[in-house]
Specification:
6-stranded mixed β-sheet; binds tetrahydrodeoxyuridine; alpha+beta; 5 helices; globular
Length: about 140
């Protein structure tokens, strides 16, 4: 497990997070698309979690890098994501797919910061997934 000590979430170490995403992309299993995706997340308690895409001969079963990142988060004991960087093999940011926006919402919520690349303002997840359905919707929608 990789752990950084920072005192405030204003200090998201974007360079480190991006570097981890780039390193994770090298571990991608993507023989079909040949798009190596790496993701790294920074937790509210200062940990970095990582993931890479894992493809399958049955194409639709492919796991995105963000799926793998969420697995890493849970296996580390859970926590909340504060920021995420997702890159392709060219080291440039790649937009999270729709399913992954929902997966990230579960663990980071509306305020989760999504890297837009060096020198660009990160986006909040609520910009990418407005009016999201989340865990709190379940309790109040049950009929019995
Ligand atoms: N991919 C991700 O890993 N994350 C995304 O958010 C977008 C797409 C992967 C899935 C597949 O292995 C490859 O990129 C091409 O679609």
């Amino acid at each position: 497990m990789y752990c950084l000590t920072v005192s405030s979430l204003n200090e998201i170490p974007w360079d480190d997070v991006r570097e981890h995403a780039i390193r994770a992309s090298v571990t991608s299993y993507s023989p079909y698309s040949k798009v190596r995706v790496g993701a790294a997340g920074y937790t509210t308690d200062g940990r970095i979690v990582e993931g890479a895409n894992v493809e399958n001969a049955s194409y639709g079963l492919t796991l995105c890098a963000e799926c793998s990142l969420v697995s890493d988060l849970i296996r580390q004991g859970g926590g909340r994501l504060a920021a995420v960087a997702i890159v392709a093999g060219d080291h440039q940011p790649i937009a999270p797919c729709g399913r992954c926006r929902q997966l990230l919402f579960e663990h980071g919520g509306n305020g989760l910061l999504i890297d837009a690349g060096e020198g660009r303002e990160p986006k909040h997840l609520h910009e990418l997934l407005p009016d999201a359905f989340g865990p709190e919707d379940l309790g109040i929608r049950k009929n019995q």
